[in-house]
């Protein structure tokens, strides 16, 4: 059974250090799951590529093209790795917008590895004060180790690689130990007729049940 | 196949001139548009219902009655009637009255409305939106179908021995559609009662409309009202046409770019490919409209939004003239390949026929029999 990991990365430059960190985390998670005997597939969602579609979604209420695919990838994933650059002491607006347009419940119960990049280590608590509350609200299961990387962590004699492996290992434990995640509502617009398979019968609605 | 128009009733500045019509102009324009709809051969005019600026569509019943007096053939409808915040006792009276005044040329579409603040304006709680839609409609049905109603629910005071007047014309209630964009509960409600289901359609990708309609059809069959392809489906639509598609695009673009709802968002080109909006020649509008069947199946009612986004009245009337020109082809197209067992949208005449003929259901007061007065009952109670 293949485990699906979706990597959501909000870096803006190409290449970006955000994507670099995302790739390191994805590689480490794949390796950890490999070691646990799991097949893994990885979908990478570059939010830059769907930035216009995200703005359109805010204005029209529906996802199109690449954004619809990205939302589907995230909804179907068994686990997420999310990485944002730090803008003004928090996640970037683009990063937040993507999670704003997900249907409620999309991330409920889903393991998520939180990561962020910044120009200075003084932002290193951003994961705890900004990302973790957001994903708590979305009722995701965040792994204990968040991975923050400042510019100086790349190349310097930092413990970044160790943190990457620890966090990826924590994610792998959650994924390998879990039953396969049931498909959730994949997009803002239901993706298949079966989405409505569990409609509440009208007699129950009349009795005030299921509301 | 019924083909018509539906109006939101927005008062929006014309982005090409900066001029905003007055409420009075817009209200009168709505009447002119409805009259034009009849003149060019359309079947239905439906008005929205909003209770705040920038809309002029409050009190839809006065509007419909007024239009009813100035037309002869047009079916008057709503898009939508706020079943959540309007007392069903009032809806029962109002639309039965319009039935009588227009000799049955009225039906209505229930909706929940999309303006959150409207709930407290009418003493309701938005968190109870779906509940209100379900309970109120269940009561409304009884008020039209039972001469004397005893009723108790959660969201309004109980009714005891209540008779809604006038009784529905010829003993048949107006046909009801249920409009919903995203709530499967409402499609379920329409299916349960065997009522019509209308999907707004115009701001959404076809894949979404397809699924909501498919759900309604499946559940319609489940509840034993007929096969799925006999369910009563209506769709919205939106176009802007000129003889040449280049002219249509050039003229409509500023209205699109500044429109409420989607303005300042996706490009005209993206939006026309993602949603049913068609901006082009009459032939393009015709072909696009007929393609709605590809995902909705053979359906019963097609309503177009034509008066919005600040388009001046003159332009709207021209749009209706153009629609009138392609109307025969559109009807022919909709009839093509339509199986004989797919029904037309119910009308007053068809509902009367199905009920076995017209009945006078006037309820005469019983006070002269019992001698009881309301005041007496209060004194006994005290």
Secondary structure elements and pairings:
The complex is a heterodimer of chains A (211) and B (382).
Chain A: E1 2-9, H1 17-35, E2 39-46, H2 51-60, H3 65-76, E3 79-87, E4 90-91, H4 93-100, E5 111-118, H5 126-137, E6 141-142, E7 147-150, H6 160-176, H7 202-206
Parallel strand pairs in A: 1-2, 1-3, 3-5, 5-6, 5-7
Antiparallel strand pairs in A: 3-4
Helix pairs in contact in A: 1-6
Chain B: E1 2-7, H1 23-39, E2 44-47, H2 60-69, E3 75-78, E4 81-82, H3 88-101, E5 108-111, H4 118-121, H5 129-145, E6 149-151, E7 159-162, E8 176-179, H6 184-193, E9 196-199, H7 206-222, E10 233-241, H8 245-257, H9 268-274, E11 278-280, H10 282-291, H11 293-296, E12 301-305, H12 313-335, H13 348-354, H14 367-370, H15 374-381
Parallel strand pairs in B: 1-2, 1-12, 2-3, 4-5, 5-8, 8-9, 9-10, 10-11, 10-12
Antiparallel strand pairs in B: 6-7
Domain Luciferase-like (chain B): 1-294
Keywords (chain B): Monooxygenase, Oxidoreductase
GO molecular function (chain B): monooxygenase activity; oxidoreductase activity, acting on paired donors, with incorporation or reduction of molecular oxygen
Give an overview of the whole structure.
The complex is a heterodimer of chains A (211) and B (382). With 211 residues, chain A is of the alpha/beta class. Chain A is built from seven helices and seven strands. In chain A, helix 1 packs across helix 6 (160-176). Chain A is globular, with a radius of gyration of 18 Å. The two termini of chain A are 36 Å apart. Chain B is an alpha/beta fold and 382 residues long. Chain B has a single domain (2-381), classed as TIM Barrel, CATH 3.20.20. Chain B is 43% helix and 14% strand. Chain B is built from 15 helices and twelve strands. In chain B, strands 1, 2, 3, 4, 5, 8, 9, 10, 11 and 12 form a ten-stranded parallel beta sheet that branches. In chain B, strands 6-7 form a two-stranded antiparallel ribbon. The longest helix of chain B is centred in the C-terminal third of the chain and has 23 residues, at 313-335. The mean pLDDT of chain B is 94. Chains A and B meet through helix 2 and helix 7 of A and helix 5, helix 6, helix 7 and helix 9 of B.
């Amino acid at each position: 059974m293949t485990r699906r990991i979706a990597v959501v990365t909000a870096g803006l430059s190409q290449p970006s250090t955000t994507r670099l960190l995302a790739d390191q985390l994805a590689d480490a998670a794949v390796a950890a799951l490999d070691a646990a005997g799991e097949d893994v597939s990885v979908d990478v969602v570059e939010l830059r590529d769907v930035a216009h579609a995200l703005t359109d979604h805010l204005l029209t209420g529906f996802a199109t093209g690449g954004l619809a695919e990205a939302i589907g990838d995230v909804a179907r994933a068994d686990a997420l790795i999310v990485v944002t650059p730090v803008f003004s002491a928090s996640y970037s607006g683009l990063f937040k917008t993507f999670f704003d347009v997900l249907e409620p419940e999309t991330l409920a119960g889903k393991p998520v590895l939180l990561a962020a990049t910044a120009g200075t280590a003084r932002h290193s608590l951003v994961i705890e004060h900004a990302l973790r509350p957001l994903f708590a609200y979305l009722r995701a299961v965040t792994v204990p180790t968040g991975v923050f990387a400042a510019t100086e962590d790349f190349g310097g004699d930092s413990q970044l690689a160790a943190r990457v492996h620890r966090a990826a290992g924590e994610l792998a434990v959650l994924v390998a130990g879990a039953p396969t995640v049931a498909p959730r509502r994949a997009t803002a617009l239901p993706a298949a007729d079966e989405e409505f398979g569990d409609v509440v019968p009208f007699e129950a609605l009349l009795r005030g049940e299921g509301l | 196949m019924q083909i018509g128009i539906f109006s939101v009733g927005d008062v929006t500045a014309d982005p090409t001139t900066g001029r905003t019509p007055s409420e009075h102009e817009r209200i009168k324009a709505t009447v002119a548009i409805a009259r034009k709809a009849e003149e060019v051969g359309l079947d239905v005019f439906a008005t929205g219902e909003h209770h705040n600026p920038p809309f002029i569509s409050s009190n839809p019943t006065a509007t419909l009655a007024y239009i009813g007096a100035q037309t002869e053939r047009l079916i008057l409808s709503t898009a939508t009637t706020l079943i959540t915040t309007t007392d069903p006792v009032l809806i029962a009276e109002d639309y039965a009255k319009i039935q009588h005044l227009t000799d049955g040329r009225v039906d209505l579409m229930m909706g929940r409305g999309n303006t959150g603040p409207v709930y407290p304006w009418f003493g309701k709680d938005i968190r109870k939106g779906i509940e209100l839609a379900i309970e109120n409609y269940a009561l409304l049905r009884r008020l039209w179908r039972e001469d004397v109603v005893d009723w108790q629910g959660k969201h309004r005071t109980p009714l005891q021995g209540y008779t809604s007047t006038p009784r529905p014309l010829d003993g048949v209630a107006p046909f009801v559609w249920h409009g919903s964009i995203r709530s499967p509960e409402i499609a379920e409600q329409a299916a349960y009662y065997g009522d019509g289901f209308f999907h707004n359609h115009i701001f959404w990708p076809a894949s979404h409309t397809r699924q909501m309609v498919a759900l309604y059809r499946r559940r319609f069959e489940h509840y034993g009202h007929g096969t799925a392809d006999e369910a009563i489906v209506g769709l919205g639509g939106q176009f802007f046409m000129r003889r040449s598609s280049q002219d249509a695009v050039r003229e409509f673009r500023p209205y699109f770019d500044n429109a409420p709802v989607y303005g300042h968002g996706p490009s005209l080109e993206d939006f026309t490919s993602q949603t049913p909006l068609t901006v082009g020649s009459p032939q393009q509008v015709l072909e696009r409209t007929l393609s709605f069947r590809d995902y909705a199946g053979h359906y019963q009612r097609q309503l177009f939004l034509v008066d919005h986004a600040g388009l001046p009245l003159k332009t709207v009337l021209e749009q209706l003239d153009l629609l009138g020109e392609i109307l025969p082809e559109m009807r022919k197209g909709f009839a093509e390949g339509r199986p004989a067992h797919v029904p037309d949208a119910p009308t007053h005449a068809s509902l009367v026929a199905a009920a076995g003929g017209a009945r006078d259901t006037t309820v005469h007061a019983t006070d002269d029999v019992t001698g009881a007065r309301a005041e007496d009952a209060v004194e006994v109670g005290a």
